[in-house]
Write a structure and sequence with these properties.
Distance between the termini: 32 Å
Number of domains: 2
Largest sheet: 2 strands, antiparallel
Shape: globular
Strand content: under 5%
CATH topology of the largest domain: Growth Hormone, Chain: A
Order of helices and strands: HHHHHHHHHEHHHHHHHHHHE
Length: about 425
């Protein structure tokens, strides 16, 4: 393989593919084990310590709060220091904390663990993949982001049965589960963050993937890579920034409707028992939709950010309509949940790609870390908010009606940000 093929991606293996592999490892292992697999421990751990689920799961709320606080700090750290060092420390925090949780003897210790997990996970779930792909790729950005983020759900599919098997092994099986999960995080992820991840192509003497094709299309045969965009300071003073932040907040709040779909099915236990029996399948259908949706949204975004946003939100609108108005038809209900998975995918795919489209690549990590704060805040309040809503008379109808309104408003906010993008002066770093 010639160095030219490596640098230019013409007929050779580009190092950017290894960056994508590292992104998959980050989302599939620490992110999935900390976030997607948390639920399997709620019942056995709360029962072991003799506390309510609400008392135990407070640690997960603290985790989300810590993520929100950590995001701007993580953005600054990743901009100022070697990304592989920052991400490796984050992975180590997650792995060591999970191992420590296997030895805990009191519930309050889990609260401290939640804070530590939030600090470690925030850069991994929100910043690592978009920042690395943005730095290393000039084409297929959306596809690579979507592919990597899809593995948060795939990791859950892989590791939830593993953790459940350890938990079922005995009254303290949950300790083994946490221990094994922590070891997996360290052993399977650190080699990628230490030995594969690099902050930018120049660190390897390379050009970004697709840079030469982009330059040739612009009539400049051999220019040095230039990152165009808006500085974080200027971006955060624009109405476009606040529109994207509001988009991130609302789309995350809307995503959490997924958590209540099994309860929605169970609400038909007295009238439609066959639908109540689908409480587990509806969650799986939604997860399948979000995994596939992340890849498809990424592909569409490579052609049009507006098209990707329209696909994700319109799918969500149709999905909610099907679940709300045709709940008696099992197949239709599951199709609706699958389609809702596409708007679920918007949280970690559409939001970063919208940010990149509007503000460019120059100061992307710092800008997106601030946008992600709004999304994390949405994650903090959403579960409590929807829980209160569904407890009201006709609560599920209210939930679906509000979800439809939220998606429409989110789409309008995204369109507004895209129109403002044309007025922003994008300069080189």
């Amino acid at each position: 393989m010639s160095s030219g093929s490596v640098k230019d991606g013409k007929g050779g293996f580009h190092y950017a593919y290894l960056i994508v592999a590292a992104g998959i490892a980050i989302t599939c292992i620490p992110c999935a084990l900390v976030l997607s697999c948390a639920g399997i421990y709620f019942t056995p751990v709360s029962s072991y310590f003799g506390v309510s689920k609400a008392e135990f799961t407070l640690y997960f709320s603290l985790l989300n709060l810590a993520m929100m606080v950590m995001l701007p700090i993580g953005g600054k750290l990743m901009s100022r220091f070697d990304v592989r060092a920052v991400l490796s420390v984050c992975v180590a925090i997650d792995g060591l904390t999970l191992i420590a949780m296997s030895f805990f003897s009191a519930v309050w210790q889990f609260y401290l663990a939640g804070i530590l997990l939030g600090i470690g996970t925030a850069p991994l779930i929100y910043l690592a993949v978009p920042s690395l792909i943005n730095a290393w790729c000039k084409k297929k950005v959306g596809f690579f982001v979507g592919l990597c983020m899809a593995f948060t759900g795939i990791g859950g599919v892989i590791f939830n049965p593993v953790g459940t098997a350890f938990i079922a092994a005995g009254p303290e099986g949950w300790r083994t589960g946490y221990l094994v999960f922590g070891i997996i995080v360290l052993v399977a992820t650190l080699p990628f963050t230490i030995f594969v991840v690099r902050s930018k192509p120049a660190d390897k003497g390379l050009s970004p993937y697709g840079a030469q094709e982009a330059s040739a299309a612009e009539g400049a045969p051999n220019p040095a890579p230039v990152e165009l965009g808006v500085s974080a300071g200027k971006a955060m003073k624009t109405t476009a920034f606040f529109a994207i932040a509001a988009f991130g907040f609302l789309i995350t709040v809307n995503q959490t409707v997924y958590q209540f779909l099994p309860s929605y099915c169970q609400s038909f236990e007295g009238t439609l028992p066959q639908i109540a029996a689908l409480s587990g399948m509806i969650a799986s259908a939604c997860m399948a939709g979000q995994a596939i949706g992340k890849v498809i949204l990424g592909l569409v975004n490579d052609r049009s950010c507006k098209g990707g946003m329209a696909l994700g939100i319109c799918s969500g609108v149709v999905g909610v309509a099907l679940m709300w108005f045709l709940p008696a038809q099992a197949a239709v209900l599951l199709v609706g949940a699958f389609l809702f998975g596409f708007v679920y995918a918007c949280t970690t795919v559409q939001t970063p790609l919208l940010t990149r489209t509007v503000f460019g690549s120059r100061d992307y990590t710092n800008i997106y870390s601030r946008v992600s704060m709004a999304g994390a805040l949405g994650g903090v309040v959403a579960a409590t908010f929807w829980g209160w809503i569904v407890d009201l008379p006709n609560g599920f109808s209210i939930m679906f009606a509000m979800s439809l309104a939220i998606m429409v408003v989110s789409f309008l906010l995204g369109l507004f940000a895209l129109t403002r993008s044309k007025q922003l002066e994008k300069t080189a770093d």
